[in-house]
Amino acid sequence: MSSPKVYVLAGPPGSGKGTQAKLLAPELKVPHISLGDLLREAVRSGTEVGKLAKSYLDAGKLVPDSVAIKVAEEAVTKKECRNGFVIDGFPRTLEQAKLFDALLIKLKFDLSKVLYIDIPLKEILKRLTGRRSCRNCGAVYNLTSKPPKVENVCDVCGGELYQRKDDTEDVIKVRFGVYEKQTSPLVDYYKKQGKLVYIDGTQKVDQVFKEVCKAVS
Ligand code: AMP
């Protein structure tokens, strides 16, 4: 029997990797893991990891590799992931990528593809300053391209919408800088492994998703 497959959604903040991961996971009938969501949840519930991670998240910086890998390992070793999974926001540094490779070998998973969704900074600023998320169900909106029907109210569950603390212009610029310095080297790392698929993230969500599906088929 072949090893369960793992798909990584990578790209700068605001590229739509979370949106695409949320669409892809049900298509493949596997769970979606978002490291950013797990860290935000840890902050909300005040766990030790959350207390440690909060200042990094607020400042738009990466939490230490040891913390990120611990949170990722805990998530992917859950039994729901035994048939494979889709992950976004991890790995984000070369160190994380190497540790992730080792972990997947140990767990006998096959890192099938890294879908790299790219967009320029100008577009990132436009998207992220308009992003709003539901406190209750996590649905994501954009004030320009996908506004909720009623201001500040989630269409799906009626929950309250909020703006992420790290979605202000200053913090977005920090996040983009962090991305360029620490995360963009992963493009070469996975290219060398023959696993990278480049996708133009400036297209509409459906068009990007078509390309994502083609890449995994
Ligand atoms: P995201 O929701 O993917 O935009 O992530 C939000 C924030 O969570 C980032 O700006 C980091 O502070 C933190 N974070 C998410 N994933 C990682 C990771 N792999 N390594 C370190 N920090 C991370």
Would you mind describing this structure in some detail?
There is one protein chain. This protein has 217 residues and is α/β, with parallel strands linked by helices. It has one domain (5-119, 177-216): P-loop containing nucleotide triphosphate hydrolases (Rossmann fold). It contains nine helices and eight strands. Helix 1 crosses helix 9 (205-216), helix 4 packs parallel to helix 5 and helix 6 (121-129) packs across helix 7. It is globular. Bound molecules: adenosine monophosphate. Adenosine monophosphate is lined by residues 13, 35-36, 39, 56-57, 60-63, 68, 89-92, 96, 166, 175.
Topology (elements, then pairings):
Layout lengths: L4 E6 L6 H12 L3 E3 H11 L2 H12 L5 H12 L7 E5 L5 H14 L2 E9 L2 H9 L1 E4 L5 E3 L18 E2 L6 H15 L1 H8 L3 E5 L4 H12 L1
Parallel strand pairs: 1-3, 1-4, 2-3, 4-8
Antiparallel strand pairs: 5-6, 5-7
Helix pairs in contact: 1-9, 2-3, 4-5, 6-7
Bound molecules: adenosine monophosphate.
The site of adenosine monophosphate has 18 residues, from helix 2 and helix 3.
